[in-house]
Amino acid sequence: MEPPRAQLQYQRYFVGNPEDREAVKDTEPQRRSLYKAVSQLVRAYANVADDMEEAGYHLTTTSAFSRR
User: Measured between alpha carbons, how far is 23 from 47 in angstroms, rounded to an integer?
Assistant: First the structure.
């Protein structure tokens, strides 16, 4: 399967057809994997957010991250 690139493709990949309960159930592993990856990313960022310069990021980069 090709990786999704547009919003509708992402919806079909992670949710399937929202009107079809079986399709929604079949795509549950993809959603769980996405939620787990996002959760890990957020935790990793939270762990280094206060020490971005020590982690090797330039001051302007860290400022851009904190403004978002």
Answer: 37
